[in-house]
Amino acid sequence: MEDFQKRITKAAQSTWQGIGGDVLRAAEVDSMSRDEVVEAVMDYLEGYGRDMNAIAEFKKLGFEEKLATLRKAFPLARYGW
Q1: Which of 31, 43, 34, 41 has its CA nearest to residue 11?
Q2: Helices 63-73, 34-48: crossing angle, 10 deg rounding
Q3: What confidence tens digit (pLDDT) does each residue in 66-78 have?
Q4: 27-48 confidence digits (pLDDT tens)
């Protein structure tokens, strides 16, 4: 798939925009580590990502490949308010 990383990055960031506030409130924190964000996004990507073709390709990846792909989408150490 052409531009897979770019498309999955957009889907992942869209997912975080959709769930981030609720996740932070539920955890009662102002920010979360990159790995925590990646884990949350992985759980909700299909529901919020809006690019079903890219998500279908993402689902075919092994777990470590999924982590690497989403870590590229979230390069900062922490995310939050």
Answers
A1: 41
A2: 100
A3: 999 999 999 999 9
A4: 999 999 999 999 999 999 999 9
Indicate the residue type of 81.
W
Q: Domain locations in the chain?
A: 4-75
Structure tokens that stand for 80 in this block: 């939050």
Q: Which of 54, 50, 53 lies closest to 70 in space, CA to CA? A: 54
Pull the structure tokens for residue 56. 């279908």
36's tokens: 């925590």
Give per-residue burial for 1-32: e unless 16+ CB within 10 Å, then b. eeeeeebbbbbbebbbebbbeebbeeeeeeeb
